[in-house]
Amino acid sequence: MHIIYSPSSAAIAGIYLLGAIGSLEPTSGSFHRIRRATSFGRIGRSWRRQSTSFLISESASSDLSKSSVSQWHDILLQTRGGSSTADANVFPSEQQEEITSDVTPLIDEDIANTTSTNTTNATQPQTPRLLNFSATTPNDGSQTDPDGIPTRFLQMKKNNRDEAKAAFAEHLRWRERFQVDTLLSRPHPKYDVCKAMVPHYFSGRDPHDNIVFVQRPAMLDFEIMRRNNATIDDLLLHYIYVIEYCWNILDPGHDRIMTNVLDMRGISFRNMKNQEYIGFGKRFVQMMSANYPGRSYKTLIVNAPTWFHALYKIFKPLLRESTRQKIVILKAGEQQDAALKFYLGDSLPDDLITGEFKTKKKNNMEGGEVDELDRSHRYFIPVDDEELCAPGPNSLMEFHMRRFCISQLDAYNTTLEEVV
Prior knowledge:
This protein is an alpha/beta fold.
């Protein structure tokens, strides 16, 4: 059997490989070498300007969280500021405008400091309305570093101080430009829309107490995006919000890491010829690798097609040895199921078990059959009862995150947009 790659297909598959390990930053210059190795030309297109209503909010802490909601006040007091003016290159230049809130939140101190009387929220304190998290945190190394650089950025640049200083300065400019410090305080009416555009969720914690984050890139649905008047920028900012929520509320701590699961089920070269798909993949990787280094414990690439293993060999030399040791590539079957149980423990979602997720057969260009995801049903259907939560898209973590989002929307006197 001969495996044939088109240059653009190989490039985007590699980009998603790196995207899956966004916090496992590739070696310096990897993107340029990828471009030369695959003749990967100009990709993507300019996206229309985003509205200022993209801002997202995340959920209240669950009993799985390392820090309860009642401790958020202490976290806020401990978190020092760390932003400066500047520029960013993750979003198109025409969109790099100062983001200002055009809505004044309706803050009621009595409400903000009392517990909810709603029976479904009886076990949780009322969510704080104002949250501010900076680029630096206690004990991240920035307080003792002569240039105020967190240790993760020095490690990313192999202790090259000049490069680390430049990388962190760029990170601060990125946070300033998009007001990331206050992102968790702002409303996110497109929360459900972004969840429907591409499945991604916190499933729970692995046996080592690391957060488990699952993504399904093959299900990125541009039709849902267009029907709901959403943009790629909405989705990217949603990801920022989710990650900020993870490291500031769900699992705060400068040394906290996560287990990433990238489900490749349904991926095909048709995906990789889609310029929107390519554009999102490239921008996602740039954003994650530049701004969230050193946050991965393991990256499990599951349901990988045969050609993906061959492709990984092309990109493997571009990754650091420490990064390569964290990557596990698995193919659907009993061995994968056993490996997932070993790595994820009780947080293994049913839909990652071989045969559990809905697929349908479709003829490929060579006359054979390939699995394609069944898109006849909406993947993300939130539950309203905590009793219905289970590891997966409706985990307890996801339940509380959505409730937090709704709480923030209530504070701004607005509601979630319905997915159409």
